[in-house]
Amino acid sequence: MEKLVSLCKRRGFMFQSSEIYGGINGFWDYGPLGVELKRNIKDAWWRDMVTGHDDLAQLPGAPAAYEMTGLDCTIIMHPQVWKCSGHYDLFHDYMVDCRESKKRYRHDQIQGRWVEAKDKKIFATAGSDSESPEADIERQALKFFGMRSKNADELKWDGPLVSLTTVDDFEQVLGPDAKSLGTLTPPREFNLMFKTTIGALGGEADTAFLRPETAQGIFVNFKNVVDSSRVRVPFGIAQVGKSFRNEITPRNFTFRSREFEQMEIEFFCHPDSSQEWYRYWRERRFQWYKDMGLDEGKLILREHDPEELAHYSIGTADIEYAFPFLPEGEYGELEGIAHRGDFDLRSHMEGKLDPSTNPMTVELNEEGKPKHRGSGKDLSYRDDITGERFVPHVVEPSAGADRATLAFLCEAFTEDEAPDDKGNMQTRTVMKLHPRIAPIKAAIFPLVKKDGMPEMAQDIYRSLKKDWNVFYDEKGAVGRRYRRQDEAGTPFCITIDGESMQDQTVTIRHRDTLEQWRVKADDLSGELRKLIG
Fold first, then answer.
1. Which of 110, 171, 332, 483 is most buried per CB count within 10 Å?
2. Residue 109 has pLDDT above 70, yes or no
3. Which of 512, 480, 279 is nearest to 414 (CA)?
């Protein structure tokens, strides 16, 4: 992972935000290569899910034919949206503060072990950013007891590594960065939404929030889409956009950030067929990651246990990937596919629903009135063929563009051996990105800067540039130029040499196999189109 992070900065995939001022935790900038990679991932998702979707055909595994359309909603919405959605009341983590170190931690992300020495038993801990929690806990315990590393076998451990959530008495807890016991405060709620102010006065009534998800913009526009585009249930509305969550402990490169981009679909269907659609979207989205180059052996589709389900969810499955920063055998979420039932549309009609009721009814305040009043607008759907009126159920495939980008980078990073200009085998760093998402599709090289080769290479560059992001390079030995493009993930390199000047053919080099073959310069565009897919 260290090598990948280093390459990302060196080659311009990603930089820490505001780095010249020391950076800001949880925010990342995409460099010249990174912005192209992420844009290509979003474009591939939008093409495969929306614009390339066949509205007329019943796709394999789908219960019926369906339509797809899109939206682009604002980041700041009416504050009542977040009250009816449940985010205002329920979107929080529990946090603990350390009175000694002045640091803040998520309650469930502190790990520790019970340990005894010198007739005293304590719960020694490590923070969520620890790469080796057990080793860090041992060092912390030795320091607390005033012992040296050579005496580590005198520590008596009681039980495995467990979460701080299993501990009731914080007086025996040694915080991750503390020297004394009992410095952690009791857990308290911490809302994850970023507050902002609308208008110049800045009073409490002007408080708004940066959206923590893009989904609610789709729900509140459901009626607008139905009325304006004449879509019929079942249909999906897709959206790509920024979301913001005030994570207590952002970590693992871009995996958990405070500003991120989502690729979400809200799929509206009849309640009677919603379980079939839920199964369809689980399989469809899982297959997409495999098609885009992720190793099936590093992917799992995990159904949530009942106690994991969100308040609105009838069922949820996560597509998870074995990120290299996780311990062996553990996976991190790439995408969640949630069966949200009719919770969202009903909430925005009637008011925030009470998740403790079954079937769910509007949550009431002390006066017996809705705690958070809905819009009062009718968001039900009438089938113009059967005449049936119902509130559609929703299946939500929600993918993170940043997490997908990170997963594709992790999958692509490879070190192998390839011959240099003199035929000697050298270690080669190569980013084996799928051609569809590679930042640069092809690089064009004149073998030498003479004999008309640069002119021919530049003509080819300008011709291909109309359709793809391609790169021209005439500096240095051709072998070093190949290596630079291998690190950038460029799948194909095109070389113009002496033979090219005679028969108008060029050499194409394949990044992964190192295979080379010649094609007519006039056939290059068609050849690349076939290779990129």
1. 110
2. yes
3. 512
Answer for the pair 344, 219: CB distance below 8 angstroms, yes or no: yes
Residues 233, 82, 333, 355: is their CA dihedral positive or negative?
negative
Residue with tokens 């246990």: 305
Q: pLDDT per residue over 367-419, tens digit each?
A: 989 999 999 999 999 999 999 999 999 999 999 999 999 999 999 999 988 77
Task: Give all strands of the β-sheet with 156-163 in edge-to-edge order.
Answer: 156-163, 111-117, 120-126, 173-174
Q: At what angle do helices 401-412 and 2-10 cross, to 10 degrees?
A: 110
Beta strand 442-446 with 492-496 is: parallel
What is the DSSP code string of 63-121?
A: SS--EEEE----SB--HHHHHHHTHHHH-EEEEEEBTTT--EEEGGG-EEEEEEETTEE
153: alpha, beta or left? (left if phi > 0; alpha if psi -120 to 50): alpha
- Write out the two tokens for 234: 């079942």
Pairing between strand 332-341 and 381-382?
Answer: unpaired
Residue 451, pLDDT above cutoff 70: yes
Tokens 């997908």 locate to 404
Residue 128 and residue 109 in contact, taking contact as beta carbons nearer than 8 Å:
yes
Q: Is 214:205 a contact under the CB 8 Å cutoff?
A: no
Q: pLDDT grade, residue 421 (50/70/90)?
A: low
Which residues are CB-contacts of 292 (< 8 A; sequence separation ≥ 6)? 41, 44, 408, 434, 436, 437
User: How far apart are alpha carbons 12 and 28 in whole angstroms?
Assistant: 12
Give dist(CA 262, CA 396) in Å, integer: 12
pTM (2 decimals)?
0.86
Q: Is the pLDDT of residue 208 over 90?
A: yes
Could you tell me if 207 and 197 are in contact, meaning their C-beta atoms sit under 8 angstroms apart? yes
CB contact at 8 A, 445 and 496: yes
CB 234 within 8 Å of CB 64? yes
Return the SS3 of 457.
helix
| Listed residue (261, 321, 270) closest to 45, CA to CA | 261
Q: What is the spatial distance between Cα 212 and Cα 259, in angstroms, rounded to a whole number?
A: 9
Give CA angle at 114 (111, 116), nearest 5°: 145
The tokens for 268 are 């509206």
Tokens of 528: 């690349």
Comparing C-alpha atoms, which of 219, 174, 499, 455 is closest to residue 341?
Answer: 219
Looking at 364-519, list the stretches that DSSP marks H as alpha helix, in order from N- to C-terminal side: 401-412, 453-465, 478-488, 498-503
Query: For residues 344 and 523, what is the distance between their CA atoms, to the nearest angstrom?
Result: 52
Q: Are 289 and 298 in contact (CB under 8 A)?
A: no
Residues counted in the chain: 533
Q: What is the 3-state secondary structure (H, E, C) of 126-192?
A: ECCCCCCHHHHHHHHHHHHHCCCHHHHHHCEEEEEEEEHHHCCCHHHEECCCCCCECCECCCEEEEC
Helix (H) or strand (E) holding 283: helix 274-291
Q: How many helices (H) and strands (E) does the chain have?
A: 14, 27
